[in-house]
Amino acid sequence: MLCGCAQYVNLWGTLVGYTITASASMIAVKRVNCFHREGYGAGDCGASGSTYMVVFGLFQLLLSQLPSLHNIAWLSVVAVATSFGYSFISLGLCAAKWASHGDVRGTLAGASVDAPREKEFNVLLALGNMAFSYTFADVLIEIQDTLRSPPAENKTMKRASFYGLSMTTVFYLLLGCTGYAAFGNDAPGNILTGFAFYEPFWLVDLANICVIVHLIGAYQVFAQPIFARLESYVACQWPDAKFINATYYVRLPGRWWPATTVAVAPLKLVLRTIIIMFTTLVAMLLPFFNAVLGLIGALGFWPLSVYFPVSMHVARLGIRRGEPRWWSLQAMSFVCFLISIAASIGSVQDIVHNLKAAAPFKTVN
Q1: Engineered SS bond to 305: which of 99, 123, 137, 258, CB 3.0-4.6 Å?
Q2: What is the pLDDT of residues 274-314, one digit of tens each?
Q3: Beta partners for 249?
């Protein structure tokens, strides 16, 4: 029950984070093109983050009416391809910036702050952002449930997790170290949207467009389990309600495309619309990129990425309480639990700090 609640809260929180990130990339595309035309520092190159969040939400509303996760497999493939695209572009831009000045910038102590307490909170926030890098655990079981056998689903997922984790860790370390070497203590929270690069403008645009496309697909991968769970719960509560169980078929005439019949379920239409609208509203009220991502990562890291798999491993192998292996696993779990608590504190403090200075419905990168 604990892991189930954590999973769905974190899935929804990830949707909020994706909405904020997508809008930031949309703003970056507009700003980079404006600076390219008008010159760096032009005063009329701003944009409303709320407007782009609404656009992103409307697009997700359209995609959410697809029947199931199986039917958006093509979208998942596109999302993976674009994730490689913006990752390699970001790495290349940072490496070029580093090569342009030739020295390793930054210090071991990191960016300077006015008070030691603020420094401590920034360190905790950074832990949350690192934890967000491993939110795969939220959808691992959901994805495994869609796999076909043979081979066995758990074997396929184990292999995918191993390669995915290895690639993610190596690439994030490369990008993090290269970015810090390039910018030092001035490194922005988001390398593509935080005033780090404006030229070549077409390459920065391409990277941000890849981010947007990736998040369009990733949003649906994380949202589908929420939709399925809530729709199943409502259907069980009112099994005889016509509105909940009815499905209507609408035939769409074709002119430039073949005529097709579309199934419309009132429950799916209403419930998914409410969820996406509420998610978009929360993103507009808390548009703080690093703070929100840090909080999401902190809340989901220990229960889903550590506690749940460790508990299942202990149960499956029959590791008895008090054995050396049991103590080592519990010690690791406890340390990760403390990290999650600490990162949550840092993220909440940053959100509170930003709320004091920022106006609602204004994106903060």
Answers
A1: 137
A2: 999 999 998 888 777 667 777 777 777 888 888 888 888 89
A3: 263
d(CA 42, CA 35): 6
Q: Which residues of 184-206 are buried (b: 16+ CB within 10 A; e: fewer)?
A: beebbbbbbbbebbeeebeebbb
Q: Dihedral of CA 322/328/331/336: which sign?
A: negative
Query: What length does the chain have?
Result: 365
**Largest Cα–Cα separation, the chain:** 71
> ∠ at Cα 58 (55, 64), nearest 5°?
140
Helix (H) or strand (E) holding 249: strand 248-252
Listing DSSP states for 290-330 in one string gives: HHHHHHHHHHHIIIIIIIHHHHHHHHHHTPPTTSHHHHHHH
| Cα 155–chain centre separation | 26
- Token representation of residue 142: 């959901």
By CB neighbour count within 10 A (0-12 exposed, 13-18 middle, 19+ buried), where does 218 fall? Answer: buried
Alpha helices in the chain (DSSP H): 2-38, 49-63, 73-101, 116-132, 137-146, 153-183, 201-237, 242-245, 266-285, 289-300, 308-317, 324-357
Backbone angles phi, psi at 195, to 5 degrees: 65, 25
Q: Whole-angstrom Cα distance, residue 233 to residue 224?
A: 14
Tokens at 157, concatenated:
């997922």
CA–CA distance, 327 with 101 (Å, rounded to integer): 49
Pseudo-torsion of CA 309, 315, 318, 319, nearest 10°?
Answer: 50
195-252 pLDDT tens trace: 667 778 888 888 889 999 888 888 888 888 888 888 888 888 887 777 777 777 777 6
Instruction: Return the bridge partners of 262, or none.
Output: 250
- Whole-model pTM over 0.85: no
